[in-house]
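Onboarding guide, step 5: your first structure request.
Type a short instruction followed by the sequence, for example:

Predict the 3D structure of this protein.
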Amino acid sequence: MSLWSLLLTPFVKNAFYAVTAVAFAAGLVGYFVVLRRQAFAAHAIGHIGFAGAAGAVLLGLSPMTGLLVFCLGAGLLIGLGGASLDDRDAVVGVTLTAALGLGVLFISLYSGYANATYSILFGQILGVTVGDVWLVAALSIAVVLVVSVVYRPMLFVSVDAQSAESRGLSVRGLSLLFMALLALTTVVAIQIVGVLLVFSLLVAPAAAAEVVTRRPWRALVLSTALALTSAWVGLFLGVWIGGPVSFWITALASSSYLVARLGAGWRARAALAVSA
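The system replies with structure tokens like these:
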């Protein structure tokens, strides 16, 4: 089978639609994750979702159900308990450890072969069905629409929470909304790269964008563009060369940050040389 014929197969097309939807949501929400310095929360929610998937399998339900419930629950719990910078990491850490303990318990109680649960750890992009595409697309569109509506107040709160609160904005309410958006984005991203690698897709493109430009709109667009590029090229390389697609996507996303940092260092040295 030629490469072109392979790219036109239904499972590859489904994968393309899914990674496109995921990249849009991850690029947008990831920028606020980096801006708010909540990378640890993004990392934790994915692992908490795994515990939910394990619990759903134990009850005979779809792993996606448990993933969605636990991710949203964790996001809201972290938003309620860790709205301030002083206690945020402690709340995230306690929530994470409690969920991981439950995950171990659920897996130990399950006597069958939990293939669906373990696939969540590593992603299953080439196994995405039409139903999965519709679900991922619906969640991603919801995330993009909400971010579009609350962009300005969310940006204000993320940059200067005290000034935003003095202007009448609800810092805790926007924190809860952001954590819910992060949870939904984590759910859709896990379908592509899995729990163990979701952190890189959410954080790396946004971190690279923040290094390149400090202007919010430009950084937001660049973060989304880098996430899309990593997803599309990673899928192509996985089909063409072989190997896990999630590896290629995360390798490209991480490389974008490395290149951005190296470029920033080179520009700083060049500026010093000129001024000297």
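Each response can be followed by summary notes, for example: The CA atoms of residues 154 and 174 lie 7 Å apart.
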